[in-house]
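Hi F.,

I've been meaning to write this up properly since the lab meeting, where we talked about keeping a consistent format for the predictions we share between groups. The idea is simple: the sequence comes first, exactly as it goes in, then the structure tokens exactly as they come out, then a line or two of notes. No screenshots and no reformatting. I'm using this chain as the first example so we have something concrete to point to.
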Amino acid sequence: MRQIKRLKIIEQISIIVLLSVFIPMIIAGFIVNNINQHAIRAELSYSVQMIAQTIQDNIVSMMEGDKNRYTNIIVALKYIPKEEDQIIFLKDIAVNSEMFKDFDIVRPSDIGQQGQELKRINYNPDDSTLYILEKINDNKYLKIIVNVEFFKDKVLNFVKDDSREIYIINKDNRLLFSHNFNEADFEETMKLLPKDIKKGKPMFFGISKNQPRIYLTLDKLNLTIIVNTPKEMTESTIYTARFKIILAFLISAIVTIILTGLYCYYLYINIKQLFKGIIALSKGNYKRQVKLLTNVFTPYEIIFLAFEFNKMVNEINNSYKQLKNKNKELKQLNEFRSDLIDTVSHEFRTPLTSIKGYTSRLLRKDIEIDEETKNKSLRIIKQQAERLSRMVEDLLVIPDIEGARLNIEMSSVSLPLLMESAIYSVKNIEKREVINNIPSDFPALYADKDRLEQVLINLIDNANKYGFENTPITVSSEVENHKAIIKITNKSEYIDKDKLNKLFDKFIRMELDTTRSTRGTGLGLYIVKGLVNAMNGSIYLQSTEDENFTVYLIFPLSERIDG
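Output, unedited:
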């Protein structure tokens, strides 16, 4: 079965943005544009309808509004007997009127409508004259010639700033007057005007919904009002609004793309950092920290994951260090065990062999052993037994030193007495001179008496074993800064400073001429340092090129502690 390809997070986000943002945005754009177009189209249709009705009302108002005035003029004419005087009277009225261009008294035969029913409002296409007929008597009519320009201004004054095209035509489709006249648009409009014109109400015509056209026919006046929406108005309304909507959605899309892109970029970078941290961790790099590129686009969850990951890495790294240390300690312990077995097997074998040999010798019945030989054998057995005892004590004190479980009882200690006891306790020292320069009145120390004696015995024994033959061991002391400084010096081979401190490690013995001929566990100085530190003292070694090897012990004075 073919495995489905897993998309990366950047690919998934792109698909989600496409499906949840861009496609709905495009659909919403079409819907909003369509609704806006219908709304503007309805507004344009309503406005042309209102303009046509308002023009109709203005025309009717101007034609019908002065009827009382016409009646008064006719009444006045009846009191003027002569027609010549009547004409003069009418001329005076025309001169003082803006609405009326001229007056005349006519008969039906004068206007070619004898035997016909005369219309009150008339338009003569031959001379483009608009006039009104008011009856004086059965044979005479008052012909009121209207000032067309004034009439036009009054009728169309409310649309003087409007960009729509307005045409007023007669029943023969001849243009009487217009507003924003455009010959090409007028010809196109007249072609679209239906042949069967309905009267009395506004009617839309034409094929362009975005350019509504309407006509309204005035039945009594035989005039038709045409209101046309030019292309420029359509472009400035519908098309401009459409452009603005598209531009708004386009800007929104660009902003969305930029923000989504930045978000995806920073998200990808930070997730990649997490991936690198996980890969480094899987390869054993426990120090690798995740460093995020944090800003407003960084989600809280990513920061939280990075923080927890770094915290986990630190814990793992610390655990790893502890494990390494434990492994190192385990390795050292294993080496210690091997060295201990090796050392004990070698160091214990010699005294045990001596004890076994001399004991067997003393128990033999087939030979007679003189008293001096017996005493010598017994002394050797005792010396080797004491040697075994010291080695056992050294081995037993090591766990207490390492576990900080030493039983220390601090008190005032007399250094002169303790030094004499230590010198006396070291065997096989009768062949080497020990120069004790510690004064009998030296101040008391603050230490553990038994542990300090063990330290001094160990150090004097080391000086005896590893010093040159026939050279003295010098013991001295002094007081400095309210502390006692004890110095044990012997002649020995020069040891580099770098190697001196290693002498305090377990099972360390320098490869010198004096050490090759002398066996030892290599635990002496390690135990000495542990005991000294437990008593709040300090120890350090010094080896000079003139073959002086000195051990310095520093302890606080008892009187200083008491004070």
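Notes:
Residues 300-363 form the longest helix (64 residues).
The domain at 407-562 is CATH 3.30.565.10 (Heat Shock Protein 90).

If this format works for you, I'll send the rest the same way.

G.
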